[in-house]
Design a protein that fits this description.
The complex is a heterodimer of chains A (105) and B (512). Chain A is built from 5 helices and no strands. Chain A is mainly alpha-helical. Chain B has 2 domains: 5-45 and 125-189 and 327-511, no CATH class; 55-112 and 232-310, no CATH class. Chain B has a 7-stranded antiparallel beta sheet, covered by helices on one side. Classes of the chains: A mainly alpha (105), B alpha+beta (512). The A-B interface holds A 1, 16-17, 20, 32-34, 36-41, 45-56, 58-60, 62-63, 66-67, 70-71, 73, 93, 98, 101-102, 104-105 and B 1, 3, 5, 8-9, 11-12, 147, 150-151, 154-155, 199, 202-203, 206-207, 209-210, 212-220, 225, 228-229, 312-315, 317-318, 321, 511.
Chain lengths: 105, 512
Amino acid sequence: MAPQKVARRRPAYRLAVVGRIVLAVAGGYAVAALLTALLSLTLPLVRSEAVATATLLSFAVMVAVVIYVFAAPTLGRAALTVAGLAAVLGGGLWLAGGFAAVGAA
Amino acid sequence: MRQGFRQSMAWLHAWSGLVVGWVLFCVFVTGTASYYRTEISQWMRPELAETASDPARSADLAAAYLQRAMPDATGWYIELPKPEKPLIGVMWWKSLEGPFHQALLDPATGTPTKARDTRGGDFLYRFHFELGMPPLWGRWIVGTCALVMLVALVSGIVTHRRIFADFFTFRRRRSQRGWLDAHNVFGVLALPFHLMITYTGLVTLAPMYMPWGVVSAYKGDEMRFYVDSGLMPELRAPSGKPGTLAPLSGMVAQGIAARGEAPEGVSVFNPADATPSVLAVFEEPHGLAHEHPQIAFDGATGAMLGSNGATRAAAKTSTVMLGLHEGHFAGAALRVLFFLCGVMGAATVATGLVLWAVARAPQGAEAEGFGLRLVRTLNVGTIVGLPAGIAAYFLANRLLPLDLAARADWEVGTFFGAWALVAVAGALRPAESVWREGLGLVGGLFLAVPVVGALTTGLHPLAGETRFLGFDAAMIALGILLGLAARKAGQARLRPALRADAGITGGEALRA
């Protein structure tokens, strides 16, 4: 117990905790928002139904990302995975015309 | 954070639960009380007896009042009287950003009601998701805490490896597990409710928290989403030219003829424009889904324009989630069950908060750190302070002079004042006795509510008044429960001696 307690007071440990919180909040919301927008445009349903389905799922998606960020072995690996996921979803949304649509609105 | 999935989840559960615990306790307590919002409002306006009123005439009286209050408003909402709430509620605004003005009118005269000025159960209901703050701030804070609650639930399920067995096991209390046992029992027993109520709570405000689907698919015409979903009929845009509104009574009468029941409310969009729209909103039909049938009218001519369509699978899922959250579908027995589950939710949060502090209590001569002291102070300030505020709110409703100016604000002020007072007093009392004293005080306050209510109004069962039996019984039950809790806290202090064979749910997890 004792050595670990000391280790957990080190600045490096505290910074890593702050990093995971920031990644969980910003990354989790970004991935959930991008996936919601992408599914809303691409699900083969009536438009309002695609939006409702995507929106209903969004909170589960964000929870999953947050859990992953805190379960990942290192902050670096977590950051890479979340950034990669966001990039893929962002690319998909761009291909689906999501950004043009928002820009034009 | 620790190595290993279960260990990192134990860490996440302990810390995520702590940082949002105080807000969640408030959300659970006021949300649970909101299952009886109507009954609380009835008790807080004892001078109103249940009476039926004419909905069409009430709509005209409300329109006349609103024309005088703000002729150039962009929107009105009229809540028509019901037997259990024989008042016309009116709301009006110049901009959707606010401010929103409101008044309660007597359905017989159309003038402001003579019943005492109070926000009734509506105050607790709004506090449940706005925390008494500016609406946007409150809603975002509550939403963030709800998401963290979901994270805490998932990580708690992972942490608690005996979850499946515990779900089907009723164990009598084993003394040495103390607070952890209580936390597990409340958390696991009502786990389906906790998961349901947290997720559906987020869905209730999803258009605000997660608007990106609507934004990307509807490109600046967001209202169309609600029309497409079958949640509202199509409305007309204002013309920009002045006009006159046709009498609302005719539209209400048409609505009654079309649906066989009176609408619960009437919305008027751009009442001073040449093309105003009027929306008659009906009670949700019997069933799980929270859906309001609506009929739109041309406000200038009173002609019926159309109604909202049927909801499809995904939109229906959303409205069922809303319905589950609000529990309007529940009859008396099921509502009691919802209430008890809500109480267990509050108890889960409260025992978790106490457990966090107990598990980190200094060993032997170690000094107590600032962090632990802060947590303990906030624990007492919230878990004892909020119920004290609610009891004081009810007492203020009976004790404040009836002709006091801004009386409703004084009631709310008493709520916050009593809460703050108890929280400060709790911070000053020694840790050994603060729970006993605090819980005892709050128990006494709740027991005083029916007594003060009867003495100040003369309305009690001995005088033949049975309307408030349920409310009084609930207050007495709460008082007794809190008294028992105070007694328990006064007995030999529970020690956090945790069983080693509980695996990761033992002391290891607690200190993670």
